[in-house]
Amino acid sequence: MSNNIEIVKKLYSEEPAIRDMRDYTNKKLKVWESEIVSHFPIKSWILDIGCGMGREAFCLYDKGFRITAIDISEKVIEPAKQFALESNRDIEFLITNGLELPFESNTFDVVIMWSQTFGLFYEEENKIHILKECYRVLKSNGILSFSGHDKEFLEVKYPQYLDGKKFFAYANTDCYWVAFTTNEMKDLAQMTGFSVVECKRGIVYKEEDGPILHCVCRK
User: Fold this and answer.
1) Quick one: pLDDT band at residue 13, thresholds 50, 70, 90?
2) How far apart are CA 155 and CA 157, in angstroms?
3) Residue 15: what pLDDT?
4) How far is CA 4 from CA 16, 105, 126, 176, in A?
């Protein structure tokens, strides 16, 4: 996994990816994200894995949730911290190693892995490991929400960027996102002890953006 982490960290320390995240920082929640929030108990403590520059963290904080947000890239965590300070938002931003969650068991009400972060965990053993970590840090009956790129959609719309299940969204990099079917996402969640509430396609901001797959699970 260490090589995997370095590939992902490198991408998110370079200007193209940072610029894309910077452009999204002030955007509202996506359509499917807003729908998922209805599952979250009021004033939940949410762990945001792969938070980038904090778009989701800031939006969720503004909805009254307590947020701890983590990422492997210092280049994105530091601007997020600064923006939180400037906008007077009490959000905890932390740098992590990308696989181990540095928190006690049974800590959070909700864990999210949005922006298709889950697809950056290469190899099945690493996907299972991070899902087990999510299970560990969630309280009893806690909620996990994670998303992934839709393999069937990419096969039709962007086959030139797809190599098997590997979706290369950026040129000239070894970094890719694993693409999924809904059944694959459900199977991985169930293999790690979660009960799947729903797993389906969701709208990003508008229909023409294409769908994203997302799962809601309970511990």
Assistant:
1) confident
2) 6
3) 77
4) 19, 25, 10, 10
Q: Which helix (H) or strand (E) holds 140?
A: strand 138-150
Number of domains in the chain: 1
- Confidence tier at 26 by pLDDT (50, 70, 90): low
Contact of 167 with 154, CB cutoff 8 Å? yes
Q: Print the domain residue range for 188.
A: 2-218
User: Which residues lie closer than 8 Å to 88 by C-beta, 6 or more apart?
Assistant: none
Q: What percent of the chain has pLDDT over 70?
A: 97
Contact (CB, 8 A) for 205 and 31: yes
Tell me the two tokens of residue 118: 């889950």
Residue 23 confidence (pLDDT) above 70: no
Q: What are phi and psi of 162, to 5 degrees?
A: -115, 130
For residues 35 and 65, the answer to whether their CB atoms sit within 8 Å is: no
Yes or no: say if 116 and 169 are a contact pair by the CB < 8 Å rule. no
Q: Rounded to whole angstroms, how far apart are CA atoms 6 and 25?
A: 24
CATH number at 94 reads 3.40.50.150
Question: The tokens of 62 are what?
Answer: 């503004």
Look at strands 211-218 and 195-203 and give their pairing: antiparallel
Average pLDDT (51-62) is 95
Nearest to 28 by CA among 149, 212, 206, 207: 206
